[in-house]
Amino acid sequence: MSQPMLTVKQAGPLALIQDVGRFGVGHLGVTQGGAADWIAFRWANWLLGNSLESPALEIVMGGNLTLVANGDVRLALTGADLAATLEGQPLAPNESFMMQAGQTLVFRQPKKGLRAYLAFPGGLDAPHVLGSYACTAREQIGGLHEDGTPLKTGDQLTWKGSSATPRQLPQGAQFPLPEAGDTVLDMVLGSQAAHFAGRSLFDAFNQPWTVDQRADRMGIRLTGKALNSRLGGIVSEGIPLGAVQIPPDGQPIILMNDRQTIGGYPRLGALTPMACARLAQCLPGTKVRLQPISATQAQAAYRAQLLKWQ
What is the pTM of this model? Predict the structure, then answer.
């Protein structure tokens, strides 16, 4: 019997193999990578009984990504609603489902959110590079071809385990998909916030920002009333996930999973991990608001989310 697999019949614009990220290599200039919406990613693995860190597929926009199965397999789909269909029938996000031999799975376009996660039994089988399966285009590492490129037509996806007993999401499981109106993004202020004018600090938290078209896995620009820092440029320093940089034009750049490891623009602070996951699901044009919270509050919210998987 041949090995069960999914074949990419048509590649979408951006389907990447991701795990929780690549850590301990920042001193080499290698970025973190990993699933941008880490919450939806982990729930996808949870639904199949996988380790929460198992590699899965991050699908951006959909773009008619088409996968064909050569055998029966149970998969799990979470995150954005990309109008996915199995043999032409709509698939509900945030559930596991059976895909049978010869069936076709298609991801079309965003109905809500931006990134969907498709998990496989035991996790996807892919090259392990520098301690991670994460696919990072900027550094040309990871992925099926070990060069950071997304899935291509003709690629074949295999997995490490066998189908497990399906799970249902527990009551209260939450996904950070943007809702109608302004999406609130919690942010912890940094030490450089004191160098921003009082008016800029007021504007930062009391106006809606718009997610710009200039958005990718490296960074997401917000547009609105310009913010001004008295610092100008600074000596380059390490950049954490969610860092809110303010370049000379005063329009914030939120640095995401594939960010550079150091940078020299003043930083207002950093989004919390929960807010980064929420922002990763925002389409260009989405209105967001920055909300300052304490580091203690951010840590408590993060721990509460981790406890959901205990």
Answer: 0.95
